[in-house]
Design a protein that fits this description.
By secondary structure, the chain is α+β, with helices and mostly antiparallel strands. Helices cover 22% and strands 21% of the residues. It starts with a strand and ends in an 8-residue tail after the last strand.
Length: 179
């Protein structure tokens, strides 16, 4: 089974919602989550070409386990030891018609990502991207004191258009996630 990863967090309700849905259903949660884009609000309008929607219309997942990413950041001295809290999702549960992969092969600050960086989703394609590249780990290991901490900047993204039921997710220990 191929697993996908999502940062664990406080959720409300029984669905993981993209930002545009959060805005209408839970405006207070939206205000908290949209702060991630302070200083780069144009990112919210980034097109997700294969899904015919924008950045704020998708739920973000990763094919890469978070441990090597945060270990590399710790090696840079920018963060101390962290307890990584994440949820997993069986890659087979996603509908390829509503899901794509963003490879992040180009400059992480490139806006928008070029259409050729988006590829069709399949569990096999996600499994093939489960190891972070040496380039990504090198960047994280060598962060200087002024660089923004963007752990996922050059890690492939799994983008799912629309909400996902919380019941599909498991905690790192394998227990069901509850809303």
């Amino acid at each position: 089974m191929t697993l996908l990863y999502k940062a664990a967090g406080k959720i409300r309700g029984d669905e993981i919602l993209p930002l545009n849905q959060l805005r209408h259903r839970y405006p207070d949660v939206y205000e908290r989550e949209v702060r991630k884009y302070d200083g780069r609000p144009e990112r919210l309008a980034t097109p997700v070409y294969p899904l015919g929607c924008g950045w704020a219309d998708v739920v973000f997942l990763s094919p890469v386990h978070p441990a090597p990413i945060f270990e590399a950041m710790q090696e840079s001295g920018r963060i101390g030891p962290v307890v990584i809290d994440y949820w997993t999702l069986d890659a087979d549960l996603l509908d390829p018609a509503d899901t794509c992969i963003l490879l992040k092969r180009h400059d992480p600050e490139m806006k928008p990502q070029p259409p050729e960086d988006f590829i069709p989703y399949s569990p096999a394609a996600a499994a093939g991207l489960s190891t972070p590249t040496e380039r990504a780990l090198h960047r994280l290991r060598n962060l200087n004191a002024t660089e923004p901490l963007y752990p996922w900047a050059d890690i492939p993204h799994i983008l799912h258009r629309g909400s996902l039921p919380v019941a599909l997710f498991r905690t790192a220990a394998g227990n069901p996630v509850t809303g």
